[in-house]
Amino acid sequence: NYMMSAKPIVCFEAAAKGVRHLEEVFTVPNHDWQKLGEAIVTLLRDPALAKRLAANARETVLNTFDWRVLAKKIESIYEQLLPVN
Description:
The chain is mainly alpha-helical. It has three helices and two strands. Strands 1-2 form a two-stranded parallel ribbon. The longest helix is centred in the middle third of the chain and has 19 residues.
């Protein structure tokens, strides 16, 4: 939801499936609350970075995680698995 609404995201590495550090999100080591706080402050102090990450996150959602995109990928898998008459 944050990605689609173009909000900058800071999260632990384990929660960052399908996204990349400093491309769509700012990731920190798992359970490192100190680094989490530092990353939030970094984005607050660097609005250009926050804006870039947020815009990239939205693009990633639209191009990778949108249901229309996922449905086409699933359809392609079924077409490969099932014989077409």
